[in-house]
Amino acid sequence: MWRSLGRWCFLLMMCGSTAVYASGQLDGAKLAQEKVCLGCHQVEKARVGPPFKAIAQRYQQASDEIEVYLAQAIRQGGRGRWGVIPMPAQPQISEEDALTIARWIRGLSLEGATNE
Ligand code: HEC
After folding, report:
1. What pLDDT was estimated at residue 25?
2. Residues contacting residue 46 through CB under 8 Å, at least 6 positions apart
3. What domains can be seen in the chain, in order of their start residue?
4. Is the pTM of this model over 0.70?
5. Which residue numbers in the chain have pLDDT < 50?
6. Is 50 helix (H, G, I), strand (E, B) or coil?
7. Mutation test of ligand 1: which of 35, 79, 87 has the most ligand atoms closer than 8 Å to its C-beta?
């Protein structure tokens, strides 16, 4: 009895995590808004920082590990990769949120590709 219950819990957990992944697109956009990234970044146009779509395109060919790199880049900030203006560190963003945003940014490179 308990054994099969355990199996169900495991299954539920698996389904739960795919659902979270699938809703990542929307959450990423929402987080970017909530975490005031949009004060410096826009999706399409350069503002203080590079547009998210340009970031997505630069790393389009990279392997999935780039999402971890981008999440780190979001939390630690950096300079010299896009221009002379540095990005301040964003330590208030949790690793999980940073990863969600990173996935969302990366997914932006696929947008428009369907317009052909
Ligand atoms: C004060 C302005 C500012 C804020 C706020 C800001 N950024 Fe940036 N961001 C920049 C600038 C400027 C750069 C370019 C830095 C460089 O040239 O290395 C950048 C670069 C990036 C990059 C590219 C990193 C790389 O290695 O190519 C990502 C991804 C990014 N920002 C995401 C975010 C996210 C997500 C947030 C919100 C949590 C955020 N930024 C908030 C200014 C900002």
Report:
1. 74
2. 54
3. 2-106 (1.10.760.10)
4. yes
5. 9, 11-12, 15-20, 113-116
6. coil
7. 87
